Amino acid sequence: MRTEADEPGQVLYVDDDETLLELTAATLETTSLSVETESDPTRALERVRDGSYDCLVTDYEMPGLSGIELLESVRDVGEDLPVILFTATGSEAVASEAFAAGATGYVTKGRGTDQFELLRNQIRKAVVQHRTRRELERKTAAMDEAPVGITITDPGREDNPLIYVNQQFERLTGYPREEILGRNCRFLQGERTEQGPVDEMRAAIDAREPVSVVLRNYRRDGTMFWNEVTIAPIGETGDGSSDDDHGSSEGDDAGSHYFVGFQRDVTRRKMAEDRLRRQNERLEEFSGTVSHDLRGPLTVASGYLELARDEIDGEIPHVEAIQTAHERMGSLIDDLLERARAGTIVDDVEPVSLAEALETAWHPPPTVEATLNVAVDEDVTVPADETRLVQLLENLFGNAVEHGATVSSVEESGGETGDVTAAHVEAGDDDERENGDESERGHAGSPRVTVTAGLLEDGFYVEDDGPGIDPESREQVFESGYTTGSDGFGLGLQLVRDVVDAHGWEIGILEAAGGGSRFEISQIDGIRGR
């Protein structure tokens, strides 16, 4: 890609001697210089105002407007254009007058070609300096207006002082520029600033390496803020090459280099991270409490119930109700633990095979004649935390099997229980089917359900052929504790919503084509292989 530095320098040469004008222009013209000519200095001033030149070359003595007057007029209109006087009237007085008026260079006309070579060299130097200054001004303006704090320090000077800060750094810290420049950035530190990140940053500066740390800093008014600081070396090595690769040079004569720093106030993010960490710690404590303090007494109670059954002959009043209560309590503990663990965070998001996740999550109870139709190609992937995605699917499948199963017969279904075809994943153990063990499933009158999973334009769906969910209840099913059954606690679908939200997806409930429930997970960016 061509930049301004690749383009020829645009030069306007002004001289009332048209013969010399054309000769000089033809001599100066090269691949790096493009020369335009003008014999009228008044028109030349208008062209400077309207055009875009890198250098102005002018004669000294011209009718109507002298070279010095043209130079002064250019400066009066605010142009910082390099101006070189090329004149036969060579004297110390003229040269002094020219430089006092703001001339960039001064070349005396003479005989031979040396004068043109000298003029060409001065023009090239002036063009490079002008373009460099203009580029620096653009970059400085961009840095001053940047939404992050930007600093430049000089590690070659004692104590690595700040030599540049932008306006956002002033706003961030509350210090005016005059109170900042010349100081080391440590003036933002305080008694509670952790030493570890400071040492890490100092080591990176000594090694001329980039680094990013988060520091506890203090504003001019004493208020604390968390400052995310990223620094990197910039400058030139001893051979004049740019140090853009963040490399380092050894030795004192390796060339000048500086450090550029970027500062962002991340106080809100840091506080949110701390809150999340404390919440996760409390969840871990809660999980441990539930597992130890609740499971222990429940196990003891269940054990005594079994002992009572063994020791007492005959029917024990209300024993079944007690056992059911124990089982319900165990289910509640399981649901609470699953909710606590799933609600922590989405960890590693990577491409996950949707077909494999569907098959991994499919394990219906053997007492239900359940069939899963997978309408998804094997090479389709979704960006997700695989563990959380499988949890989501397990709960959707569990909901479909629990609430979507209807009583039917094997003869009506025309197939075995638990099928999955390419679609089709079967419930139950393969060895049991081979051995003909149908004692607990597949008999006439067993509940039956067919679940189908497929792709959407921006996600996937899971639907069943059960009785469905009435429209009035579709939003409630994701609420904690909502349940339509007598043996559940309504946490499964809330967990589904949590996993969906953690990924930044959307979920909705529709009516399936056959009248059952259809859960659509959408707004998934990055699905591949469809």
Automatic annotation (TrEMBL):
Enzyme category, top tier: transferase
Question: Where is the PAS domain positioned along the sequence?
Answer: 135-184
Q: Does the keyword section mention NADP?
A: no
Q: Where is this region: Disordered?
A: 236-257, 426-449
The chain residues annotated with the modification 4-aspartylphosphate are: D59
Tell me one GO molecular function of this protein. phosphorelay sensor kinase activity
| Keywords annotated in UniProt | Kinase, Phosphoprotein, Transferase, Two-component regulatory system
What this protein catalyses is:
ATP + protein L-histidine = ADP + protein N-phospho-L-histidine
Which CDD domains does this UniProt record tie to the protein?
Answer: HisKA, PAS, REC
Superkingdom in the source lineage? Archaea
Domain Histidine kinase span(s) in chain numbering? 289-522
Domain PAC, chain residue ranges per copy = 209-278
Annotated protein name in UniProt: histidine kinase
